[in-house]
# Entry
Amino acid sequence: MALTAIALGGNVGDTAERFEAAFAQIESLGNTVAKRSTFVGTPPMGESAGDPFLNAAALVETALPPQQFLQQLHQVEANLGRERSVHWGPRTLDLDLLLYDQQVIDSDAAVVPHPALWQRRFVLEPLREIASDWVHPVLQETIDQLFCRIDQRPLRFEIDGANVDPTRLDDLCHWCGQEFDRGDVSLTIAKAAVPPDNLFARIIVRDSGVVEPNRTQPRPHDSRTIEIAAAHAADATKLRTALNDIITAALG
# Structure
């Protein structure tokens, strides 16, 4: 049996009841829910997210390989009314596979550990409650250490945009200083090739066709790096929205 960590989220209808139904379905499919976190209320992320969310985490024992277990989670989502239409929009139920033993997988079918695990407070907070000593197999830090890193203030970000007008990067740093409390967040332009030790994340704006408009994509196994497609950076509003999503998810 493999030990996995999953995240649950939702903000439509009776989310707590839907979490309970999800746990029941996961067990009915031959898995064992070994441990559950308390349910945590969190603010919505993104302009279209709707009402506040409820989030949780669970440790699940399964005999299935990662790809099949993830398919099973998606089936449970569908059974309970999940529709994948709007990125970071309202949702009845979101089930994410965060960790699968100490395996590292990067395929079309599954990416494990979940690439955004380390940068989302609403994921780390409930996971820390039930698996604080679990070591992230790529970052080689425990969940507790990852939470302490995201809990530091100010949360330091760098932005690196070789394909973006430097003036626009300056404007983004200025916008960040106005949008967020300077005691909470620091955004500066990347200068050195190697990020400083106290950096939370380096945000790279690059020319890539794989990221949808307004969507951010963490690089699966490159620690402390998040990508935004430069193809969508020509629109200052969209770029600010993408940055806002990253920072808000980290602050919680």
Q: What stands out?
A: The chain has two domains: 2-150, 155-251. The longest strand covers residues 53-62.
